[in-house]
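Protein modeling request. Please complete all fields; requests missing the sequence field cannot be processed.
Requester role: graduate student
Desired output: 3D structure, token encoding
Chains: 1
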Amino acid sequence: MSDDLFAPRIPEDVANRRPLADRLRPQTLADVTGQEHLTGEDGVLRRMIASGSLGSMIFWGPPGTGKTTVARLLSGEAGLAFEQISAIFSGVADLKKVFEAARLRRMDGRQTLLFVDEIHRFNRAQQDSFLPVMEDGTVILVGATTENPSFELNAALLSRARVLTFRSLDEGSLEVLLKRAETAEGKALPLTEDARASLLRMADGDGRAVLTLAEEVWRAARDGESFDTEALTRIVQRRAPVYDKAQDGHYNLISALHKSVRGSDPDAALYYLARMFDAGEDPLYLGRRLVRMAVEDIGLADPQALVICNAAKDAYDYLGSPEGELALAQACVYLATAPKSNAVYTAFKAATQAAKENGSLLPPKHILNAPTKLMKGEGYGEGYRYDHDEPDAFSGQDYFPEKMGRQTFYDPPERGFERDIRKRLEYWAKLRKERNPR
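Delivered output (438 residues):
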């Protein structure tokens, strides 16, 4: 007790001086800016609340986009108890306590919204522990992650939760936050117009960051002082970030690289590749993306594209950095200058859709093996013609299930190597019609 008496007293206004980002935290979903596709009048979350039924969700998006705030507001507007844990600091024992508390609440007629920050940091077994309490309605799980859920979360968990994407805040949304901050502080930011625009870029789509930067500016400014862009950079000790592997910059640049390759612009493709190298991107990640471009956008228009991309990946493995980057740059230029075709990509999607729609149809019996007498008696293998024994090594038989009829998925364009493939297919189609008229 005596320790308390003689402890230095902290002025109440200082003790209550919370960070600006915390003080300006939205109080309703309508106050959330930058996520109107979710929280707006016609947004997904609004519709869920109006229906009176919430399901488990995964909030996926960059830091500072409002995932935690939205989860808390969602629980309030839906009348749910709110529990929050972080996968960084929690283990199985913590989860058990939370689940037990949620079960007790449920017995009293109140459901729990469990918000799990950084949910991707839980291992597979820990992620599986959520399944029973999600299925029996003990909790409505809302997990937040900055990483792609498709790669970081269990398929079983994803099948029980809807993924909602939070967008990096654009400059308009960040400007809204700055104006709210100025209203709360009762004064304008002491920045020139160019410096204000620079501060918005420095925030890089992060709402929390833009408010933190604004606080730094106010702390540094003397009465009547105003900062230009150069002074702002000195004060906050931060240049406008070009790229962050955990934020939208990563996805924006890889998208720009992919579309530059698809658009046959080797100069733009090299520029975006160089930006990602400069930002510290994993070269093997870029190698994998180049392989994807080879099979999606070049395909059989130039079959060497895939070979060269795999060779570039192997070359990087062999040479390491920085010499290995040149092999990936070479593959990038090759892809950008290669003839383009997505015919195989399109054909595979169409074939996949047909496989889903038509169920488990039996192939025609004449192309099925008949290892037993029973199968022979059922007509398996009967009438099969061995193509190598036919003229032109082509029998022209029908290989599709009878109930489906013949389908055409692959339609090669008159470009690159696929021009030759198209000629072959047209020739075989002519022979098929002649040898199997119907």
